[in-house]
Design brief:
Blueprint lengths: L2 H10 L4 H12 L3 H6 L7 H15 L4 H5 L1 E4 L2 E4 L12 H13 L12 E5 L5 H9 L4 E6 L2 H14 L4 E4 L12 E6 L30 H9 L4 E10 L5 H10 L3 E7 L5 E7 L3
């Protein structure tokens, strides 16, 4: 079997051509440019078997990132696996907003604090917490997750990247001491409604990180309701949510007493993150 034959078989399984090439490059440890230049080369039997297994898993819907064990997020190469969600580009909208606040919040705000206190609730792979720490080294970042398996992935990523982040196990605010306060709270919580038909396509990712059931807003409600005792005056709470949930999330923040409530859009122009500032 040649490399071209292997890619043709992947095409017969209706795999995306780029995915097929990247999986073959992963097996061989070669870039796409090399594959194109050597498509008539023979594929070693061991590599052929490994490639076929990966193609079968991809054809069954398993995320590409799980197959190669890595996903790029905000310039960082993160190790991922079935214990955590695959980081999405949409979530970079949340990180960009956070970094803007840390750099430009006016006098007396976040930019004036030498070591702003930041917490990432529901950290998963550590994507948000590590991206903020990487771009804002002076921030003291804490990352929380209910899943011990997810925390193990996040801690491994932090160690590999040489980023110092505090990790805590527990459900949202329950993982933290009652008197612990922050300047910036970030979260990409589960927000897909329990009956959403799109969940079937996400069956390989952890359900706990995708949906709280019901209308999808229970996790956001818990975060907003529990936030006030953990916020410094002038602190910000930023939340990722579904494209159709911005109004509901904004209402929750306003009802809880947050000011300057606003929504930011993702790269596709959809409402993706909503946040507000605690008075003071």
């Amino acid at each position: 079997m040649t490399l071209a034959d292997a890619l043709a078989r992947a095409a017969a399984q209706r795999l995306d051509r780029l995915d097929a090439q990247l999986l073959l490059g992963h097996v061989l440890g070669r870039p796409r440019s090399w594959l194109i230049a050597h498509d008539s080369d023979a594929l070693p039997p061991d590599a052929a078997r490994a490639y076929a297994a990966l193609c079968d898993r991809r054809a069954a819907g398993e995320p590409f990132a799980y197959l190669v064990g890595e996903r790029e997020f905000h310039g960082l190469a993160l190790q991922v696996g079935p214990a955590v969600l695959v980081p999405r580009p949409d979530t970079e909208t949340l990180v960009d907003w956070a970094l803007t606040l840390l750099a430009t919040e006016p006098a007396g705000g976040l930019a004036d604090r030498s070591s702003p206190q930041v917490v990432d609730l529901g950290t998963g792979s550590g994507a948000i917490a590590l991206a903020v720490k990487h771009r804002c080294p002076g921030a003291e970042v804490c990352a929380v997750d209910l899943s011990e398996a997810a925390l193990a992935v996040a801690q491994a990523n932090a160690t590999r990247l040489g980023l110092v982040v505090e990790f805590r196990a527990g459900s949202w605010w329950q993982a933290l001491p009652g008197d612990r306060r922050f300047d910036l709270v970030l979260s990409n919580p589960p927000y897909i409604a329990g009956e959403d038909p799109h969940l079937a396509a996400l069956r390989h990712e952890p359900t706990l990180a995708l949906t709280p059931g019901g209308d999808g807003l229970d996790a956001i409600r818990a975060i907003v309701a529990g936030a006030p005792p953990h916020l410094h005056a002038g602190a910000w709470l930023l939340l990722e949510h579904g494209w159709d949930q911005a109004d509901a999330v904004a209402a929750l923040l306003q009802q809880a007493g947050f000011e300057a409530v606003a929504t930011h859009r993702d790269l596709a122009g959809r409402p993706r993150c909503t946040g507000g500032r605690w008075p003071g």
